[in-house]
Amino acid sequence: MSAGNSEPLVADTAPTDPVLTGYDEQHHVIYLRLLDAEAEHADWREVARIVLKIDPDKEPERAHKAWETHLARARWMTEQGYKFLLKGRAPD
Fold this sequence. Notes:
The chain is mainly alpha-helical. It has a domain of 64 residues. Helices cover 58% and strands 0% of the residues. The chain has three helices and no strands. Helix 1 packs across helix 3 and helix 2 crosses helix 3. The longest helix has 28 residues.
């Protein structure tokens, strides 16, 4: 699935599995963009609109939940998930 320009669509919530998932592999660029936006202190609404492709004016709860859970997953990737990346890929 894509958003029209080869970027994968985001789920309403990011995974919470204790291991790297296929979803994580498909969305690693989005996670990096979220971390960059956080470092720039970007407003979550702008990030939801641009990075997650969810309009926070039309779907504020969905946009916030997607932003919040994907950012949490991005942080997890920097703390735990990278270990799975070093091993090569997500488990089957």
